[in-house]
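Appendix B, example 12.
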Amino acid sequence: MDFLTEQDAVKYEKDGYLVLEGLLTSDECDALRHRMGEIVEDMDVPEHCRVQFSTNHDEQLKTQGNADYFITSGDKIRFFFEKGVFNDKGDFTVPKERSLNKIGHALHAIEPLYKTVTHSPKIQGIAKKLDMKKPVILQSMYIFKQPGIGGEVTPHQDATFLYTVPLGRVIGVWIALEDATLQNGCLWFIPGSHNSGISRRMVRTPKGTFPLTDFTGREQEYDEMLFIPAPVKKGGVVLIHGEVVHRSARNTSEDSRHVYTFHLMDSKETSWSPDNWLQPTEKLPFPSLYT
């Protein structure tokens, strides 16, 4: 039996997102978390790389756009931190394992365990059921959502950052490695909002200019009452249409909310924008999902 049913596919197309339980076993989740713990333990962060990650419009320009570290991370494993975890001297104010917002953006290509999960038969089956002809993997991230300090992710659409012509060719795969709850910052969606296009794009600026990225347009204002929570159990997955509006609240609980997430693009008759921050490289062209 297919992991993703026809009924599931219809619901995804209608709402722009879908929650499915049981993609991974508890042991598989624990293995991914254990390996990430090893990566963090071995982390050596250069002083100039101690940037902080935010989805707030102005802070994105400051912290990401000015940082070559971010814009060249598509074929590497790099570290991005929560607000307030460094003092004025650049030293950690919290244990380093509690300091990270995310690690990205090529776990799917560099780390064997993450590569296996990304290319798993269940993931390939999902893509086929959603009629993806030539899916490629764009990027991958491990998101920590640290207890007490895990930052808010403001309402946005993934196509703002991962733009294609035509739109509608990108899917986010968001795998909960721990329970994602109302208390620790689960995702919230506006169902059906993937049918209205996008109002903002993050684009590369001309070479030799700063910041390295800029935004065109502005994020719309959204009615809070339209957002629906999407809690998911450990091992479950949320499929996210590239244009659906979603957000997550700050984690004010005592529990972390670890997630492994990656984005797929159907490359058949699709143009990847050369203005996107993320670009394939000679070292890592976007790899095919189907193996």
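The longest strand covers residues 135-143. The chain has a mean pLDDT of 92.
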